[in-house]
Structures are given as structure tokens and as C-alpha cells.
Design goal:
- The complex is a heterotrimer of chains A (790), B (205) and C (262).
- Chain A contains 21 helices and 33 strands.
- By secondary structure, chain A is an alpha/beta fold.
- In chain A, strands 26-28-27-33-25-31 form a six-stranded mixed beta sheet.
- In chain A, strand 10 (250-251) and strand 11 form a beta hairpin.
- The longest helix of chain A has 19 residues, at 443-461.
- Chain B contains ten helices and two strands; from the N terminus they run E-H-H-H-H-H-H-H-H-E-H-H.
- The relative contact order of chain B is 0.13.
- Chain B is elongated and about 60 Å long.
- Chain B has helices at 12-36, 42-46, 50-75, 83-90, 92-96, 111-135, 142-173, 177-182, 188-194, 196-204, and strands spanning 7-8, 185-186.
- Chain B starts with 6 loop residues before the first strand and ends with a helix.
- With 262 residues, chain C is α+β, with helices and mostly antiparallel strands.
- The termini of chain C are far apart.
- In chain C, helix 7 (221-227) packs parallel to helix 8 (229-252).
- In chain C, a hairpin with a 6-residue loop joins strand 6 (123-124) and strand 7 (131-132).
- A four-stranded mixed beta sheet of chain C has the order 8-1-10-9. A two-stranded antiparallel sheet of chain C has the order 2-3. Chain C has a two-stranded antiparallel sheet with strand order 4-5.
- Chain C has helices spanning 18-26, 81-85, 112-116, 138-141, 148-152, 163-179, 221-227, 229-252; strands at 4-9, 53-61, 64-72, 92-94, 100-102, 123-124, 131-132, 158-162, 186-188, 198-202.
- Classes of the chains: A alpha/beta (790), B mainly alpha (205), C alpha+beta (262).
- At the B-C interface, helix 1, helix 3, helix 7, helix 9 and helix 10 of B face helix 3, strand 6, helix 7 and helix 8 of C.
Chain lengths: 790, 205, 262
Amino acid sequence: MTNGWTDVANADVVLVMGGNPAENHPVGFRFVMEARRKRKAKLVVVDPRFNRTATVADCFVPIRAGSDIAFLGGLIHYALSNDKFQAEYVRQHTNAAFLVKEGYGFEDGHFSGWDAEAKRYDKSTWAYEVDGQGYAKVDPSLEHPRSVFQLMRKHYARYTPEVVAAICGCTKEDFLKAAEMVTVAAANDKSGTVLYALGWTQHSHSVQLIHAAAVVQLLMGNIGMPGGGVNAQRGHANIQGSTDMGAWNMLPGYLKLPRANWATLDEYVKANTPKPLRPDSLNYWSNTSKFMVSLLKAYYGEKATAANGYGYNWLPKAGENDNHSWGFLFDRMHRGGMEGLISFGMNPVANGPNTEKMIGALSKLKWLIVAENFETETAAFWRARELADEYYPDSGEASKIQTEVFLLPAACFAEKDGAFVNSSRWLQWKEAAVDPPGEALRDQEIIARLFLKIRELNEKEGGAGAEPLRNMSWNYANPLSPSLVEVAREVNGRETGTLRQLNGFGELKDDGSTVCGNWLYSGSYTEAGNMMARRGQDDPTGLGLYPNYSWSWPANRRVLYNRASLDHEGKPWDATRAPIRWNGTRWSGDAADYKADAAPQAHGAFLMLPEGVAKLFTPDFAEGPFPEHYEPAESPVENALHPKVSFNPAAFVMDKLGAAAEFPYVGLTYRLTEHFHYWTKHIASSSELQSRFFVEVPHDLAVEKKIASGDMVRVSSARGKVEGPALVTKRIPGLKVSGKTVYQIGLPIHWGWLGKVTGPLINNLTASVFDPNSGTPEYKGFLVNLEKIS
Amino acid sequence: MQSERRMARFDLYERTVHWLAALSYLYAALTGLALWSHKLYWLAWVFGGGVTVRGLHPWGGTIFAVVLAVMFRKWAGQMKLDTDDREWLRKAHKYAVHEEEGVPESGRFNAGQKMLFWSQALATVLLFATGLVLWWPEVMPRTLRLAAVLIHPLAAIGSIGGIIIHIYMGTAAVPGALRSMVQGWVTPSWAASHHRKWYRESSER
Amino acid sequence: MHTVAKLIDTTLCIGCKACEVACQTWNDQEFTLGTFDGSYQTLPDLAPNFWNLIKFNEFERGGKLSWLMSKYQCMHCVDPGCLRACPAPGAIVHLKNGIVDFNHDNCIGCGYCITGCPFDVPRLSPTTKKVYKCSLCSDRTAVGLEPACIKTCPTNCLTFGTREDLLEKAQSRTAELQADGVAAAGVYNPAGVGGTHVLYVLANAARPEDYGLPRDPSVPLAVRLWKGPVKWLGSLVVAGGILGAFFHYVRYGPKKEHADAE
């Protein structure tokens, strides 16, 4: 979240799309309800289902899964053509005035620079026009035909309400009602927030979808404003933390993964330190070297010296164009290209796309280590045939699978201390409630024991990792089970000489004199103590920012980009809720997203970006500088905007796809309030609340197919099938898409072959299709067929 | 001596059935009364506590109903009202105050006894049927339960009212009646006085 | 003394069922695995181990789809029908703070309370042969804590307080909703049972049945007759019968053997 849960109460309009907070974030949803009560906020819900959030909405618009960019593009068009955007904000705080180089264009579904052979874009045509010093040229009048503003206006001219209605399957009237409510936030004294979750991130165009939301919010002047922002509701208590710490394709703090073509630290730093694009840009990533060197010092301690590039050479490096994201990893495994997998706190057989492919991939491994609270489907993948024969006819016999599986009993969340990083970016320290039962160990102990053993074996028997492992700093009081306080202190960072805990990333150095495990978390554990454990409930700004409650990255900032809540001169857009104020010498209020002692006019409001302003147009993403509507990999209709390029040309497809003739309906996956992932089917209470797997069938389709609630149905896709009783409902309406009725089938996830309650895995149906930027699978909007079986 | 002459009135089978009915009735009635009013709840403690009473009252009632069914088979044929009985009923108020002039002679059972028989039979049917509903409230439809909570006590009131008269008549009001049901015999003069038609028929045989 | 109450603002309920789990956990009731019954509801109905049910009511009226969630539990009536019907002294206790509590030590499991309840709430356990329902967490409220369901409610749909305060709060919330254009908003505090200690704010107070609530509940007529006139009649018949027989004997004496044997 750019803002945070408590800040949602400051909103005047709440757009919920691609999420269902009432069901999946009920505790956070109370702040939506608070906004409704205290600010008379309007709640707009855009979703394929009339879900529990929609039941309390002021406006509900049903749309087809995978058509969100069309809807948001429609909002952009509506705002621009009806003069419902915050013009001064857009002029001052976005790159609307920037000029784009000649040669940029968009035609028939392709942006300029498409390389049909390599199936990727040459992004050089998406660059700004620069002057002699390398600064982008701007036209503050926004009238230059190659200004971002004019290009955006032209790009979205196609997204008329009629086109939106035809693509999304909603009515024009519903769209306009929603657009009117959302664009109320264009006023200086109105804020609107956007809440989204996996309904946006699980598409083959998910990053562009969120980009589209950012464009809408920038046009409304909502970024940096209390009650504004683009807010991702995270699905797990600590998924934000795992991303921040560099889950798999990043180093901690969103530092790029080292690659083979950056052979030395200098090359790495050079490639990852952007140049400012405007004279007033602070360009905070110019500090990359400080973040990276401090991280290397945390990894290798005293062994990391200027002479050896602080141990950069010991880091494993990916090939120049390698992709190690989830889909590629399992695809490689499926092709036999991997030897082993350590699966911690995840259940790929259950949550990976195309379950049979996941099972197939794991059965090619030599060894698999699963550290879990329960025996999961992943730990028991080799018994798939035995446990759920009807779904995996092609999986191998247990006796033929050679994978050696180790199931390590691991402690659950209540048995561990440490910090949860919630959606609001708050690091909340917690204590262990009880000790792990039986032989279960805490994660850090499992990791430490593995590490020490592997290091020992590398030393004894020789191995590729001997040197990096030997040089790894592991000076914890109890090496076999490092305390998380020690780790947290190391993550915060300290001076190497004095061992003084750092106050924040502003103190980081690239000369080896500071250690920091994650620059973003610097300030979370200072000399003053564990800031994450704070529970102060004072609210000096009156905006619900609670600066002394836990600790928020970065720098305890509660509203990201809060400098943009003021104009260039430092005057708040809305004086009643300015999160920060300039008193002539310093900033007060929230931790300013700005240089603490810099006058308002000194820099652009968006410090992290080389532009110094927010990007409506960006060359950062794989499939274009502006978000464009592409159909899902499997769609019941052709792309109404450009039928020849229906699907995102840059997305990754690693699976067999079905066609609408055979699979005419759209599959929707979602979780139910009552469950947590694939985990709570082992828990009595959650199993009671929603005991049985079911398939939600639209009422009209059920009438057509003579299906009544409780009848057994089979849902199948080009990958597999699931079977269960039907729940016939009017909550998933049939939609008129380009004149054709499209039905969507509701498929709640949670069940599997193990637990107190069992049922089929929905990912039997989904496809290994991935967003080209994030690598997230397209779990929403795939084609299925529906049959009554009894 | 006259007093030494005995006439058999109720055989052992009839007496056994009667007293089984009486005992089960008494149990059902007293435990029923315990559940009827908080003021009579002390009766529940006499019979082993509320839970026991709630558990066994339905069984007591069932036993009574079964015994009554046996009794019904035995006596129903003799309980038909004839013309004299109807006349008797019209003159019942005279019978009650011992002015028996003009009150028709009775057979083995007089019309009052017959009315008791039929009314108890009806009450038992009602009590048993509604009792079943109240026995398993959790599976019974609400409307049935609402009817039952009204009909069960009403039937019980009717029944108990009748039984009070029956006990009074069978003990204090008609000396010799109790002996007939305990030992099974009456004196000829008793029979001639209270059940003249039966007395004559028996003597003729 | 102020009586306590629970206010359920149905306009804030999102059907998360946290209250169901809190209720079962606090009251030490076992979780059971349900069956699929064509709805999101945990169970089709309340159960002896399940005293708090979120009902999901999906219906379409005038082309508008509604999916209402509402909490269903003991209403803690001011005039409790269960208490009227209960034959066992002390099994149902009407506490001074307004809570209608079941004392299982005294419960005899007759189930009359089920019939007496206008809201069809108490449930008889086939194993323990006792009747169970929400106690408004009388053990928690006795020591100044709010009931478990209210403690856990994430949206503030549930609030706890004195009945006076909550009635006022319900009224002001209704006014707020009406000002927001929800013209039919209203408070559910049915007069037929003398009011309840569980109050609802309904978006459409004219149709409480949309929320699974009876429109105009009262202690059933049959129960009122049973515990009123029928009881008097019974006393009359029993007392009258015994006294009548006695005085008959006093006045007329026993029947004499007036005839001789022939």
C-alpha cells in the first residue's frame, strides 16, 4: 500500500476492484466502513461477482474477469474528456509535460519497437526527448503533440463508455455512474483510494493493470494524499515482508539481482544507478551503491573489503536474460532441469498453476524438502494418484517416483517471534505465544542447521559453494538458531566500528563502514530499541497515521509520496488534511517523503524517480509505456480494440490453451472469508465454517443446463477438471460482451487432498501463463466448460 | 347369612389391568403435575428429580396408554350406552344426591362409569398423541408443538377431573366398590342396589 | 439498574463469521463439519453447539439483487417466552441486567422453551438432553467484559452497552442512514416480546423477514393460554374436584344399599 489501512478512513471515495476486502480483509475493511460513516465516502465495487463487499457498496458494476484495464482506461478517458482531473497536480507532479521522442507510436495492438521474432519490445522508442545535458524536454502547457499528456489523451480516446461496456460486459450507465463517483476525487479537497488484491495481480497483464490504476490516481491528484493512493491488500500476514526482503528475483530492498553481465560491483552499481532526468530531480536511487555495499557487508562481514568488491563476486549471478520467476522455475523443473527444491511455507502443488504440471515437475526432482506445519499436498505429491486418482490419471505411480521427500515439521506463526509486515508496510513485532510442538523447529533454526551442514560438507568434500559459504558472516550468539532480535538488528544496520545501530538509511555509506541487511528497514531497530514493538496510539496529525505504532518502511513514513499532497510551492491541496507541512526550515507531520531540510521548491515531489515526478508514461514495463487492454490468454471473445493482437504480446505462455468453442465459460478463482489459503482445511473451526467444496454457477446458466443447487457438476479446462456440488446464484450475472452472453463460473480455492475437509484443487484448471513483468500466473479469467454429472 | 354370600364382580385379569392402569396413571399424573406448575415442582423431587421426571413421565404415560388399550379391548364391548343409560344420564343429578327414584337400573357398569371409560379413552388418545410431540420437541414441527402444549394439559385436566370423581365414587361414596376391585367380589345386596340389571342377569344364570 | 444489550448494525455486517468462531471458542463448544446446503451459511440452522449463526439471504426484488447477512441468536427478550414455558424453577434465569440465561444444572431438557421462544432459538442436545443458546456471555458480562462475538467483530457491526444507550445509538444510526437516503432504515426491537436486549438496525425495517427475523414476534398464543387460563382452569378442576367430593360426602354421605338381594 502506498498509504495504509488506517488511512483508508480518510477517503471520500473508495474504488474496490480486483479485491474483496469485506471477505478477504475484513479487519482492514472496517476503515472503509469508517470512511463511509465519517466522511460519507462512496464505495464503488467493480467485480465479476456481487460479493460481500458489493453488498454494502453505493455502486456495483459487474465486469468480466480480465477486462479491468478497459474499465480503468475508460475512467482515464472519462476524466480527460470531461475535464474531471486535478490539472495542476498533473502538471506539477507527473510527467505529463515531458516530451517523448519521435518514433513512438501505437498501432493495431502493438506499441512501436515490437520485435516479432524475439517476441519482445525494443524500448528505445519509448524514451523522452532529451536536451544536451540528458534532461528530458518538457512543455508545461501540455499542448505539445508529443507531450505525455497529449499522447495519453490520444491513446485513451478509444476507451469510450460504449467500448468499455462492450469489452467489460457492463452497461454504459453503470460505467458512467461509477466514473462519476470515482472522479469526484479530482477536486483538490477530495481524496479517493483504490483497493486491490489478487484480482488484479493474477493476470497476464497485471503490472499494467496497476499502472493504469496509478494513472487514474495521478489524474485525480490522489497519490501522496491522505485517503488516496494505490493500495495492495496483501493476502498473507507477511507477504509484504517477503517481497521487501527479496523473495526470489530481487535482493533485499528491491535491489536488482546480480547478473553475469555485471561482472564486478562497479558494473552492477553503474547499471543500477539511474541518471536524473530533470535538473531538480533528487533521484534517490543514486544511492544504490550505499545500499548494495551495506548489504554485502551484512552478508560477508569483515571478509567484505573494498579490495574484493565487498564480496560481490561471491554472489550467484543470473544470466543476462535469465528469468528465475516462479513460472520459469517450475517449467525448468518440469523439463528435468532441476535437482532439488526447498519449499518453505508454501504449497506449490496446491497453489501453482496447472496442478498436474506441478506434480510432474516435482516428480523429476532428486530431492524435495518441505518445511511445514502439516503434511501438505506438496509433501504428499507422490501420493497424488492414490489420494485423488480421478484428477491425475497421467501422474506417475508412487512406486515409480524417485524423488526423495523430506518433511520437516516447522513452527506455525504463533510459535515464532519476529515481525509481520502488513499491507500498510508496518513492521509489527510479535512474541511467540507458545513453543513449537513435538519436533517442530522454528524456521530460522531449520535454515541455520541446513546452512551450517551444507557449509561443513562443502569444506569437507569440496564444492562450488565452498568459498562464498566460508565467507558468509554467521556470528550469531547461537549459530544453530539465531535469535530474530539479532537478525532484526542486523537488518536495520549498524556502523562497523562503533557497532552503533543506525537511525535510518540516510546514514548508509558505500565505503564499508556500515552494515545493513535491508536499507528499506533501516530505522526499525535503532539505539532507542525495537521500533517495531512500539504500540503508541497517539495521532498528532489527526489523520490516523499513528507514528508511534510499530514502524513503517521507509523511515516510518505512513503515506508514501506525501510531498505530492502539497503543490510545488508547498501549499497543501487540501489544508484540512496535509500529512506534512513546511515551517520554513523543516518538515513536520508524517515523515516527509522529501529531503528533511529542503525547501518545497528544491526538488520534484517523487524523490525515488529519475524524473522527479510520477510517471503516467513509463518505459519500465515489458508490454508498453501506457497500459493497454489485452484479453486473457484464454478468452471467450476477441479483443474488441485490436482483434489481431488480442493477447498481451509480451506475456509468457507455458501451457496448453483451450478455445472458447470447447470451453465457453470464464473461470474465476477466489478465496472465501472463512479460509486461509490451503492451510485452514487442517483447522476445525475454519473447516466448519465452509466445509465443502462447491462451484458457483450463474442462475441463468443453471436454468439453461437444468442444474439445481446441490447437483454435482464437472468443471473442466484444457488442463484438468474439478467436480463438486453446484451453488446456483444470481450473484454472478451473465454479461453481454460485444453482443454475446458470457457466463463466469465461480471456483473458490482452499480444498485439497489432505486435511479435515478435502476437495479438488482448483489449480487443476488454471494455466501456466504469466505476466511478463511480475511473473504472476493468470489465475483469473481462463476458459472452462461446465457439465452436470448427477 | 347374607353377608357371607359373594358375587364375583371383577376377575383377576380385570383387577390386574385396572391397578396397572391406576398406578401408571398416578405416576404420569403426579409427575405431570410436577412439570405443570412451579408450585408443584416439589413432586419432581419426590420422584427422583426433574431430569428423571422429564425422562420417565413419557414412559409412565406410554405404559398407561398401553394398559388402557388392553382395558379398552376387554371392556369396550360392555361400555356401549343403551336407552336406559341415556335416561340414567339425564337423571344423573338425582343419582348424585341419592334420590334414585326413577333413575333407570344399571347393568354391570352404570352410565356414569361408561362415560368415564369413554372420556378417559379419549383423553388418553389425546395425551398420548400430544405427549409424543412433547417427547421429542427438537424434531417436531412448531405448529404441532404449539397445539400440543395446549391440548396435553387440557386433556390432562379433563382426565384428572374424571379420575377425582372416579376415586371418590370408588372409595368413600360407594362402600363396597373398592373391595370389588381389590378382592373381586360384592354382596348380592350391593349388586342389587347399584347394578340391579347385572345382579338379575347374574342371578338368572 | 441499567440493563445491557447488544446492537447489531446489519448495514455493517459483512458476513465474515468471526463471531461464530468466537462464540464457539469462548463457550467451549465443539466444531462440527457441516454439509453443503447450497449457501454460504455455516449450518442451515442453530445447533446445540452452535448458538450464533450468520444467515445469508439472497433474493431479488424489483430487479435489484440483495445478499443480506444477519446474525441470528437469542434475542434476550424483555418478556422471555422461554422463561414462561419453562417448568423447572431456576433453569432459565432472567438476570437483573436483562440477560436471559440458561442454568444447565437445573435444566431438565423438556424443550418447552423451544416452543415458548418466538424466535425459535434454543436447541436441545440429543447427547446431554439439555437446552442450549446464547447467554450473551453472561460469564464475561458479569465481570465487565463484552460478549465474545462483540469482542471479535472486525467492522463494529456489533456493539455492547446499556440498553438505553444502544437504543439511542440505534436511533441515531437510523437517522444517519435515512439522511444518507436509506429511507426504510429502522430499529428492530419488537414490542410483542416487550422489546429485546439484542437490537438491530435494519436498512429495510419494513421487511425484517428479509433478514430472517420474524415480522411481529410475540410469545405464542398457545403458550400464553397454556400458562394463563388453562392453568387457572386446571387449578379449578383439581381443587374443585377434591373439595366437591369432600363436601358431597359431608352433605350426602355414602350411597346406601337400598335393595335386598332376592
